[in-house]
Amino acid sequence: MAGIYIHIPFCKQRCIYCDFHFSTSFNSYRAEMIEAICVEIIERKKYLDNQEIKTIYFGGGTPSLLLDYELKSILDTIHSNFVVKKSLEITLEVNPDDIKQENLIIWRKNGVNRLSIGIQSLKQSDLDWMNRSHKVEDSFASILLAQKYGFDNINVDLIYGLPNLSMEDWVSHLNFIIQNDLITHLSAYCLTVENNTILNDRVIKRKINLPNEDVQSDQFLKLIEMIEKSDFEQYEISNFSRSGFESKHNSNYWKGFSYLGVGPSAHSFNGESRSWNLSNNKIYIKKIKENNLGYNETEKLSKLDQFNERILIGLRTIYGVNLNELSKLNKLTKEFQLALSEFKDKKWIEEDVGVLTLTKEGKLRADYIASGLFIS
Ligand code: SF4
Questions:
Q1: What is the CATH code of the structural domain delimited by 2-254?
Q2: How many Cβ atoms sit within 10 Å of the Cβ of residue 13?
Q3: Model confidence over 20-51: pLDDT tens digits?
Q4: Is the CB of 20 under 6 A from ligand 1?
Q5: Which atom of ligand 1 sits closest to the CA of residue 130?
């Protein structure tokens, strides 16, 4: 069970909150980038130890900027170098303004069967504030058009905790998602201020006042409350799906299965080690051209690293953390047991046949709880 992630490091413009790796001036070297990505796929074909590939995920950046032959050459290279499952999930992250008839035809023709649409907000002033390249009308039109061209597995991304997003706005955005049968999956993220973003700069210069944590928590709790009354299920803290439409790619990642990440800044994991590519487009291309493997760094994970990582990732999901599997990685120390019983007493964690999961209250402080259970 393994997946491949392809990072397409291009965007039309910079959203103010974004700290992903991408460039907005790429047309002069986009052919070289696609070639470098294909070379990396070939160079690292042994990384997953011949495991069958069940999912391919194009993220970024903005993979919906890929041209037909670019998408085809990356997928052909994967098919020629890996054992690929017939019923493969292929996800493409897309911006609403790229969802046009001609692109939808190209994506279907190349085997893409899941779209992840970066809607982010259904309020134009929020989109302007974020410096998104699309308009609210694009979002509404894009979902209908995607369905018309055969896409029945559609995720939308939403952001809450925005400065001008009232509870009323948020409820109306959620109602739109829940009541729209064409949308099968929702990823909802709280706005966070990351270093090296325009947002961070504006916050430091006091040009922006962010809502306080209570407002953000209330919006998260409203999200959970509305999801519980709908036919979506929360299967990861920020991810919700209708039955059978969970993201296979991300679920494999959360369950600790292996994946290969290709392209600048992409991360990989094969059970024993974690590796990451450098985040510079031109240097990445140069090193690949020179046959210099220095574009990638690897760190071997100790059993203790794996233990802590299982807690961090597993607790965020409905699959939870299996105590028996944890104990194979490291002894469940007295400190761990003490912290666990404290979190159970506070009703932040539940245990059912040896599997730990977070309660609704626990989900509000997932990272805090996970770090309380880490063993150092
Ligand atoms: S389109 Fe996506 S990757 Fe590009 S800047 Fe905006 S949020 Fe970041």
A1: 3.20.20.70
A2: 9
A3: 999 999 889 999 999 999 999 999 999 999 99
A4: yes
A5: 6
